[in-house]
Amino acid sequence: MEIVKPNTRPVRLFFFWSGVIATLAYRIIIVLNFYSPLWVKISWYIGTIGFIIYFWHRYNVQKKRSELVLDYKLIDAVEKNQYEGPRQKEALKYIVKTSLTSRSRWNSAFICLLSILALIVGLVMDVIQILD
Q1: What distance in Å separates the CA atoms of residue 83 and residue 125, rounded to the nearest whole number?
Q2: What's the pLDDT tens digit per position in 8-46?
Q3: 25 near 47, Cβ under 8 Å?
């Protein structure tokens, strides 16, 4: 079993800012709609690509966490170790267990896949519009 190391700080910042920029790009569309259809399209593409990058990353992080819990039998380890008190043990057990049962990984995968589909549809529609 291979230990998963966190990404470097610049890589983590890249994914963080991809999500922030994507969110801002989508939110500003309502304002851009008053000024220029071209800027709306640019903003939409930036937002969609940013969401693909961000949610693909989130899916992978969540998947790695749940794999670590299973591979290293972390739930059993939490049960067997000693802690400063029952609350500390329960808190850690909650974190470990919910990394397996949380649906956030599937939410991230769903958003990523829908963003990819939206990007493909948007590109096809724009190509058709250019060719007309």
Answers
A1: 59
A2: 999 999 999 999 999 999 999 999 999 999 999 999 999
A3: yes
Distance CA 131, CA 119 (A): 18
Region label for 73, one of left (φ > 0), alpha (ψ between -120 and 50) or beta (otherwise): left
Rg (CA), the chain: 20
Task: Judge whether 89 and 78 are in contact, CB under 8 Å.
Answer: yes
Nearest CA to 44 among 129, 113, 121? Answer: 121
- DSSP annotation of 34 reads T
Q: Which of 18-22, 85-89, 100-104 holds the top average pLDDT?
A: 18-22
CB-based contact 61:99 (threshold 8 Å): no
Euclidean distance between CA atoms 46 and 25, whole angstroms:
6
- pTM for this entry: 0.84
